Amino acid sequence: MMKALALLAGLAALAQGAPPDMNYSVAKVDKLPAVDGKADDAAWAKAAELVVKIDKIDDFEKPKNKCILKAVHDGDSICFLLVWEDKTKNDTHGTFVWKDAKGEYEADENDVEDAASLAFALEGKFNPDMFAPNPSKWDVWEWQAFRANAGHAKDRHHVYSKERIEKSKKFKARDDSDIFITRLDDEGTPPAKKVEAPTEKKGDRVPGFVLQAPSGSGADVAAKGMHDGTKWTVEFKRKLKTGNADDAVFDVTRTMDCAVAVFDNAEKREHEVSGKIILKFQ
């Protein structure tokens, strides 16, 4: 259960230790940056830099680490830049390993990619603490170093409900009431899919996921990350308004609540999260 909820938990902050809300002004530029993970475009020089304090959930009262966030828009689309330190590059995920003794493949549970997420208010009151007792929906963009790094992020939405809904799991909220949490892919095709292990040996290690062309609302978010040996640099881009019901609308006349999470071995350890960031648009 902990493995299945790791990306979700990474976006949650302990209510008792959550830092004050952060404000960020999204600059308007004439030309948006290319989404290539290089962050060397002129547009980024015009963007303010927000140092977002992050840390593992258990240490969130006194966060020790940071992630750099920048954002720009051109009136049609919006781009985000995340940069954080990570000295180990993990860009494979769920590889099958051949076991001679059994004559079959097993999934390598320690083969887990690095990742980063941006979460945005979709419906209801936004609180980065997933165990807050208030029903809400989030629009979530998940960049993953293997499964979502060929040009698109995994576009999802999270639903937090006081009533059981299809595919939901029940948890205790901060006030000891029940809350039901569901993570759903946006309508369409995601950028990767899980595959079955071969029944015969095809090599010592074979992929557990294959990349595919995303479609529909699942293809809304462009994303690309690059690792330089000490840190990840990841860029995202999406239309301000996609017209899809499962996507947040960025109205430049209003603010938007969001949060950031970055992950070293996404489902295993070092889940580092932020508090709420309030975006304002120039």
Task: Provide an overview of this structure.
With 282 residues, the protein is mainly β. Helix content is 3%, strand content 45%. β18 and β19 form a beta hairpin.
What topology does this entry show?
Blueprint: H1 6-10, E1 22-28, H2 42-45, E2 50-56, E3 65-73, E4 77-85, E5 96-99, E6 104-107, E7 115-124, E8 136-144, E9 151-152, E10 154-161, E11 169-172, E12 178-185, E13 188-189, E14 192-194, E15 205-206, E16 209-211, E17 215-216, E18 222-227, E19 231-239, E20 256-264, E21 269-273, E22 277-281
Class, according to the CATH hierarchy? Mainly Beta
Catalogue the unreliable spans. 1-16
Elements, N to C (H/E): HEHEEEEEEEEEEEEEEEEEEEEE
When the domains are counted, the total is 1
Mean pLDDT: 88
- Neighbour order of strands in the largest sheet: 1-3-2-21-20-22
CATH architecture: Sandwich
Distance between the termini: 42 Å
CATH topology, by name, is Immunoglobulin-like
Question: Which class of secondary structure composition applies to the elements?
Answer: mainly beta
User: For the CA atoms, what is the radius of gyration?
Assistant: 19 Å
- What composes the largest sheet? 6 strands, mixed, barrel
Shape: globular
Q: Provide the helix percentage.
A: under 10%
Individual helix count? 2
**How many distinct beta strands?**
22
Strand content: over 45%
